[in-house]
């Protein structure tokens, strides 16, 4: 059934339902004596007029109209302001006291793209969203749609009143005396991700949803206090036990039942209008789910001490700017090794699973190529990374060589991510940078060097041997979204990342004072670090001087002996 036919049938059903509901909801005539009015509690109110405004997702609209999909969209029964869609005339009931209830609308939109990819004149991408229902549950809610779309293998997916997005109203909708309005942040559900043909994953942010609902009171139930007052004035001497809704035969109970019937019928007509089974009434809880409501480090000199055992030595000569040293004070030496260099590092990252699926799917019909990297188990692996790390500060940077290149749509889609680097900024944080070469939706070439592609969060383990993280969370940055040519928006979750940075040690000998702490500005006596002489050189020099002295002594005595003989 076409979108127009479904909308027409739904509209007629809604009008009939409202007419019947109005007749049933007429209050019964009561023979009880007239009593002083008692103000009833807040009750559910029927929607008199309403509007819902939503653009689904900005990047999706850009993709549809871009040079890759080369598509567009058509609407019926709703207003379209350059992709920002507005539904009007919704029906339903809402309790403004606790912001609960639901409102259903008629009309929708169909997006198409990649026409002629598999069959002449037919789109390979088709997604239709009609007859939305917004459900309120306090400060959260759910947005339902009738959905019919094609997955990446061109199979039809969807159904009636699919929960497409979870809504967050923040502090809750703005409640007036006879209105309910506000704006909600929207997040894609798992069912919604299927409707988007796998382009986006569950949890991806969607455009914000705005709504403005005018309310009129339904036939209100009388309060227990009012009924007790009526009973006293009529002289019956009986009192009410329990609420009026709990007693059969009362006019207020009949009125409430009629109002409930009206609400159910109104929502049902919206669902039926979509051409779906009437059992999928979005207002019925039985036909759909309810809405969802420092790593420790080793430290700078915590590496193992090795080398010469502590021994007593003379104090070194004082150098400018060094700590004052007493000439006769005894000192000890110790070899200290500090891990600060990184070599042989590895990094594993899948970029984004849904993007890989899209690239190899029936629409893009593409693939990826590797240079200096490998692919295993859904992850691209970079190895041989090198860099530096400061154990005291818990920070450092490690870079890798190699790239992965994604292509599709006969080369129109072309994205290369190369030479990534991870900069650890704290015990639970890091950033991922990379060189990116891609093509924008307008066909412009994008060439970025060292762009901050994503942020990394999660436990980063620091030991004396390595820095590592396993399955750390990765979030796309604004610069990364630009590099991704608009496929995804800032803040979206990418695949988790794992890395291992082996540390290399740098050793040096220091002098320890009487308190066991290194003496500032001092060096080990005899090391001759400034001249470059080693201990072996000193030993050889000493032996040579001793030999020369002995030879001079022998020559002198020989001359004295010759003089005496003469």
Largest sheet: 8 strands, antiparallel, barrel
Q: Any idea what the shape is?
A: flat
Radius of gyration: 39 Å
Q: Would you identify the regions where 5 or more consecutive residues have pLDDT less than 50?
A: 1-42, 235-328, 525-545, 559-566
Helix content: 10-25%
How is the secondary structure organized here?
Elements: H1 3-24, E1 45-54, H2 58-65, E2 72-76, E3 79-81, E4 84-88, E5 91-95, E6 100-104, E7 108-115, E8 123-137, E9 140-150, E10 156-168, E11 174-175, E12 179-188, H3 190-195, E13 205-217, H4 224-234, H5 251-273, E14 312-313, E15 331-349, H6 353-360, E16 367-371, E17 374-376, E18 379-390, E19 395-399, E20 403-408, E21 413-426, E22 429-439, E23 445-457, E24 461-462, E25 466-476, H7 478-483, E26 493-512, H8 535-565
Antiparallel strand pairs: 1-4, 1-5, 1-13, 2-7, 3-4, 5-6, 6-8, 7-8, 8-9, 9-10, 10-12, 11-12, 12-13, 14-15, 15-18, 15-26, 16-20, 17-18, 18-19, 19-21, 20-21, 21-22, 22-23, 23-25, 24-25, 25-26
Note down, in words, how this protein is organized.
It is a single chain. With 566 residues, this protein is an alpha+beta fold. The chain folds into three domains: 3-13 and 41-220 and 258-280, no CATH class; 340-506, no CATH class; 534-566. 20% of the residues lie in helices and 40% in strands. The protein has helices spanning 3-24, 58-65, 190-195, 224-234, 251-273, 353-360, 478-483, 535-565; strands at residues 45-54, 72-76, 79-81, 84-88, 91-95, 100-104, 108-115, 123-137, 140-150, 156-168, 174-175, 179-188, 205-217, 312-313, 331-349, 367-371, 374-376, 379-390, 395-399, 403-408, 413-426, 429-439, 445-457, 461-462, 466-476, 493-512. The strands form two sheets. It has an eight-stranded antiparallel beta barrel with strand order 1-5-6-8-9-10-12-13. A hairpin with a 4-residue loop joins strand 18 and strand 19 (395-399). The protein is flat. It starts with a helix and ends with a helix. Mean pLDDT is 73; it is low at 1-42, 235-328, 525-545 and 559-566.
């Amino acid at each position: 059934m076409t979108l127009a036919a479904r909308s027409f049938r739904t509209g007629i059903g809604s009008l009939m339902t409202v007419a019947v509901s109005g007749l049933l909801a007429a209050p019964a005539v009561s023979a009880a004596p007239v009593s002083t009015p008692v103000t009833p509690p807040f009750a559910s109110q029927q929607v008199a007029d309403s509007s819902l405004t939503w653009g689904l997702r900005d990047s999706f609209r850009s993709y549809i109209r871009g040079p890759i999909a080369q598509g567009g969209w058509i609407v019926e029964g709703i207003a379209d302001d350059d992709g920002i869609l507005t539904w009007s005339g919704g029906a339903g009931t809402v309790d403004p006291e606790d912001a609960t209830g639901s409102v259903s609308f008629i009309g929708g939109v169909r997006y198409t793209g990649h026409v002629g990819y598999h069959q002449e004149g037919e789109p390979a991408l088709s997604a239709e969203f009609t007859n939305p229902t917004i459900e309120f549950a306090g400060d959260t809610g759910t947005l339902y749609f009738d959905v019919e779309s094609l997955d990446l293998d061109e199979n039809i997916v969807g159904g009636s009143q699919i929960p497409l997005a979870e809504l967050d109203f923040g502090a809750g909708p703005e409640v007036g005396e006879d209105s309910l309005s506000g704006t909600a942040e929207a997040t894609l559900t798992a069912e919604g991700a299927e409707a988007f043909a796998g382009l986006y994953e569950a949890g991806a942010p969607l455009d914000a949803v705005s709504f403005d609902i005018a309310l009129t009171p339904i036939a209100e139930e009388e309060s227990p206090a009012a009924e007790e007052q009526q009973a006293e004035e009529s002289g019956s001497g009986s009192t009410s036990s329990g609420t009026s809704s709990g007693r059969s035969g009362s006019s207020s109970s009949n009125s409430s039942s009629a109002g409930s019937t009206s609400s159910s019928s109104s929502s049902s007509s919206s669902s039926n209008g979509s051409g779906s089974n009437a059992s999928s009434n979005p207002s019925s809880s039985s036909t759909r789910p309810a809405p969802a409501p420092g790593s420790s480090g080793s430290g700078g000199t915590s590496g193992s001490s090795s080398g010469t055992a502590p021994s007593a030595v003379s104090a070194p000569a004082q150098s400018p700017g060094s700590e004052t040293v007493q000439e006769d004070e005894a000192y000890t030496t110790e070899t200290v090794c500090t891990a600060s260099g990184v070599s042989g590092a590895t990094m594993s990252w899948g970029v984004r699973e849904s993007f890989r699926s899209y690239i190899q799917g029936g629409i893009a019909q593409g693939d990826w190529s590797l240079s200096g990297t490998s692919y295993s188990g859904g992850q691209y692996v970079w190895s041989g990374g090198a860099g530096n790390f400061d154990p005291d500060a818990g920070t450092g940077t490690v870079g890798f060589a190699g790239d992965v290149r994604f292509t599709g749509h006969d080369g129109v889609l072309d994205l290369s991510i190369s030479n990534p680097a991870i900069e650890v900024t704290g015990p639970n944080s890091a950033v991922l940078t990379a060189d990116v070469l891609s093509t924008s939706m307008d066909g412009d070439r994008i060439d970025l060097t060292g762009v901050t592609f994503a942020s990394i969060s999660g436990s980063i383990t620091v030991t004396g041997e390595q820095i590592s993280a396993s399955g750390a969370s990765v979030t796309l940055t604004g610069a990364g979204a630009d590099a991704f040519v608009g496929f995804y928006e800032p803040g979206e979750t990418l695949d988790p990342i794992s890395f291992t940075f082996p540390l290399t040690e740098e050793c040096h000998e220091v002098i320890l004072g009487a308190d066991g702490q290194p003496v500032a500005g001092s060096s080990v006596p005899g090391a001759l670090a400034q001249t470059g002489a080693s201990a072996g050189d000193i030993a050889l020099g000493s032996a040579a001087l001793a030999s020369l002295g002995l030879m001079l002594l022998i020559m002198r005595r020989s001359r004295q002996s010759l003089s005496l003989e003469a």
